[in-house]
Specification:
Blueprint (H helix, E strand, L loop, with lengths): L4 H25 L12 H6 L1 H12 L6 E4 L3 E5 L9 E8 L8 E4 L6 E5 L7 E10 L2 E10 L1
Length: 148
């Protein structure tokens, strides 16, 4: 069989196409490369983004802000002391960017202006915390990336 430049080009194309097909198939079937959106309702949240901006602006105008600290029991979230805790309502969302099965949401139930998120619900590492709360018909939001 005679090997000329035309045969070499055809073989090079076949090898290149085979490599690309192997690469595409292995990327689509490998479960370790499976990445999801942070939230399934991503587009719905995008439409409500201006409301979130307004809530964050309201939170920045407060004299005392929402704070958090890590304790041996878990994370303690402290709300402003000048507000009555029975009038503070809302939810706390904790997102784990590396594993959506660890994400959870809890209702705000305060004890002396503090909310405890137990240690048993949290793993060490990065979390995104989002506190969507209201006090006397004014909505507030606190967002932060934390290391636990």
């Amino acid at each position: 069989m005679k090997f000329n430049w035309g045969t070499g080009v055809v073989i090079a194309f076949i090898l290149f196409i085979s490599f690309i097909m192997y690469f595409v198939i292995s990327m689509n079937t490998d479960k370790s490369l499976d990445h999801d959106l942070v939230d399934e309702n991503y587009y719905k949240q995008e439409l409500e983004f201006q409301n979130d901006i307004n809530k964050e602006k309201n939170a920045k105008t407060l004299a005392s802000k929402v704070t958090w600290k890590k304790t041996t029991e878990g994370i303690v979230i402290s709300f402003p002391a000048d507000f009555q805790d029975k009038n503070i309502t809302g939810k706390v969302f904790l997102y784990r960017p590396s594993n959506k099965q660890l994400d959870f949401e809890t209702t705000i139930l305060l004890s002396n202006h503090n909310l405890l998120i137990p240690d048993k619900r949290l793993l060490d590492g990065r979390w995104n915390i989002k506190i969507d709360w209201s006090y006397k018909d004014t909505n507030y939001m606190f967002k932060e990336e934390i290391q636990y």
